[in-house]
Amino acid sequence: KTGKNLVQWPVEEIKSLRLSSKQFDLEVGPGSVVPVDVGSAAQLDIEAEFEINKESLDKILGNASVVAEAEEFSCEKSGGSTVRGALGPFGFSVLATESLSEQTPVYFYVAKGKDSELKTFFCTDTSRSSVANDVVKPTYGSVVPVLKGEKLTMRILVDHSIVEAFGQGGRTCITSRVYPTTAIYGAAKLFLFNNALDATVTASFTVWQMNSAFIHPYSDEAVRALSRT
């Protein structure tokens, strides 16, 4: 739709691994962290759309005292999901412990530009993904185009130590390898958060529990046939 993005999206067969699902419609105010009751959150498929409250948007865009930061902001150098701006960050913390001592936030950050236009960034912050000290834990992401009239949408695939995030239908994609020590199997939790200073956000999303992809090994006959070729 943008005419200039290479779109990436999970293969359709991923849907065949979906098990039970839950749907949610939640309004989250500034500074909120909400646990999402889906049971074990070690293997999930999440499809979500977000909408910033119009009153919040109008107030911020019309307020000259709100800093224009879109030109300077970047996911990698911003300090991650704990750094609060007028319109973000907001999204999900996946592979999280109950206490949030381990968590991997996937989020949007909407920034006001000097021309009062909005610029949207899609990021994954792995800085708190593990309490282990011997792993690299950067923040990834980039700007993602949002066309007029579109809601902010994301899809997240969680698979134990891999988090794949797709923003705006795959215009921006982030694959992260994380190494939680406690947020594993049944102890892995899911949270919805809104760290914006001033904006209320509405989140509508579906969460599927995912089955394992059972990989069938080659038979001895098939291996012999392959070796002959």
Automatic annotation (TrEMBL):
Keywords linked to the UniProt accession: Glycosidase, Hydrolase
GO molecular function: hydrolase activity, acting on glycosyl bonds
InterPro entries found in the cross-reference section: ConA-like_dom_sf, Fructan_Metab_Enzymes, Glyco_hydro_32_C
The keyword Hydrolase belongs to this UniProt entry's keyword annotation: yes
Entry keyword annotation includes Hydrolase: yes
Gene3D superfamilies associated with the record: Exo-inulinase, domain 1
Xref: Pfam families: Glyco_hydro_32C (PF08244)
PANTHER family: BETA-FRUCTOFURANOSIDASE, INSOLUBLE ISOENZYME CWINV1-RELATED (PTHR31953)
Family of this protein: Belongs to the glycosyl hydrolase 32 family.
The protein's name in its UniProt record: Beta-fructosidase
Lineage: Eukaryota, Viridiplantae, Streptophyta, Embryophyta, Tracheophyta
